[in-house]
Amino acid sequence: MRRGSYVPLYHSSEDTLVFGRLIAPGKAAVVGLTSAPSPQTVTVDLTPIGIAAGTKVHDALGWPDATGAAPANLTRTIPARAP
């Protein structure tokens, strides 16, 4: 996650952040973090990192893959912070 351009995608006050790392066209990563005590469901627009609507997105941590809806929105639930 040290390479590529940092692209902010979502933030909510001080507890939830979603950002992308754009490596090259078609190569990007999305990271979601939260310090909230409960899971946070967020919807982000992936077009700033070059992901078009209808693109299948692979989850590298084993969660189910997803397909972005128009306009390339992706909804995910970020687990609550660890105790």
Briefly say what this structure is:
With 83 residues, the chain is mostly beta strands. 0% of the residues lie in helices and 49% in strands. The mean pLDDT is 83.
- Total E-strand runs: 7
* Number of domains as seen in the coordinates: 1
The CATH superfamily is known as: Golgi alpha-mannosidase II
Q: What integer is the average pLDDT?
A: 83
The neighbouring-strand order within the major sheet is 1-2-3
Share of helical residues: under 10%
Order of helices and strands: EEEEEEE
**What is CATH's topology name?**
Immunoglobulin-like
- Give the CA-CA distance, first to last residue: 24 Å
Q: How many separate helices?
A: 0
Structural class: mainly beta
The CATH class, by name, is Mainly Beta
Indicate the radius of gyration in whole angstroms. Answer: 13 Å
Using the alpha-carbon principal axes, give the shape. globular
Percent of residues in β-strands: over 45%
Regions with pLDDT < 50 over 5+ consecutive residues?
Answer: none
Report the biggest beta sheet as strand number plus sense, adding barrel if it closes: 3 strands, antiparallel
Write the CATH architecture name: Sandwich
